[in-house]
From TrEMBL:
InterPro entries assigned to the protein according to its UniProt record, in alphabetical order: AAA+_ATPase, ABC_transporter-like_ATP-bd, ABC_transporter-like_CS, ABC_transporter_ATP-bind, P-loop_NTPase
Span of domain ABC transporter: 4-235
Protein name: NitT/TauT family transport system ATP-binding protein
PANTHER family: ABC TRANSPORTER ATP-BINDING PROTEIN, TAURINE IMPORT ATP-BINDING PROTEIN-RELATED
PROSITE patterns listed in its UniProt record: ABC_TRANSPORTER_1 (PS00211), ABC_TRANSPORTER_2 (PS50893)
Lineage start: Bacteria, Bacillati, Bacillota, Bacilli, Bacillales
Length: 256
């Protein structure tokens, strides 16, 4: 049994005057602890697929199972991290990271201690009483990651979480997020337009073709790259070779 199983997924958006098929015949399996990236041109349905896996959208047909259960019944086991941090500006950092526990009715002295400890692990010491506006963009994204991890989700969905950051901060966060997810043995799916980011962070890269979105090709990241943190992986020879291979595939999709 696979940890996450997507079978014959199809999704069409309907309006009064039109029907647009976003995804067609998507079948994928993800192992526990695996880091997968969804890569592809704009309009290939990556974010739609992420929303379906998260249980936010009901697919037109097909199914998604998390540990052999429909994702609609497993939403508390799924964490979602987006481009924007979506921290509540009127709440302190401590209040923001404890929001999931509060909503679920699990806010105790122990969970409070655990979330503050997560902040410290992210290099955010003594910021609990701060408000989001007092932190940099990179720090806020680290807070958003803490908030996502605080409820101990089994599956993390990362929808271009670094795209709004400057390049230096992005590289630092890639290392931090990758190391954190490995330490917690989390399963993660990243949606990105950045080939380099996908290679540096992933175990496997799924390339989608557009209109409608289909699985075009899957790339396995070499073991020597997976063993390295993202920043070091970017300087490895295997990284350059895989980058060129994926780039050519993307170019071929543009010509279709």
């Amino acid at each position: 049994m696979e940890f996450l199983s997507i079978k014959e997924l199809h999704h069409t958006y309907f309006t009064r005057s039109s029907a647009t098929t976003a995804l067609s015949d998507i079948t994928l399996d993800v192992k526990e602890g695996e880091f997968i990236s969804f890569l592809g041109p704009s309009g290939c349905g990556k974010t739609t697929l992420l929303s379906i896996i998260a249980g936010l959208i009901e697919p037109t047909s097909g199914n998604v199972l998390l540990e052999n259960k429909p994702v609609k019944t497993s939403q508390n086991d799924i964490g979602y991290m987006l481009q924007q941090d979506y921290l509540f500006p009127w709440k302190t950092i401590e209040e923001n990271i404890q929001l999931g526990h509060k909503i679920n009715g699990n806010l105790t002295k122990e969970t409070k201690r655990t979330t503050v400890s997560l902040l410290e692990q992210m290099g955010l010491n003594d910021v609990e009483s701060f408000y989001p506006k007092q932190l940099s963009g990179g720090m806020r994204q680290r807070v958003a990651l803490v908030r996502t991890l605080a409820t101990e989700p089994k599956l993390l969905m990362l929808d271009e979480p670094f795209s709004a950051l400057d390049f230096q901060t992005k590289l630092k966060l890639e290392d931090l997020v990758s190391n954190t997810l490995k330490n917690f043995n989390k399963t993660a799916i990243l949606v990105t337009h950045d080939i380099g980011e996908a290679i540096a962070m992933s175990d496997r890269i799924v390339l989608f073709s557009p209109s409608p979105g289909r699985v075009h090709k899957t790339f396995l990241v070499p073991e020597d790259l997976k063993a390295l943190p993202p920043f070091k992986a970017r300087n490895h020879q295997s990284y350059t070779e895989l980058f060129q291979t994926i780039w050519k595939e993307l170019e071929s999709l543009d010509k279709e």
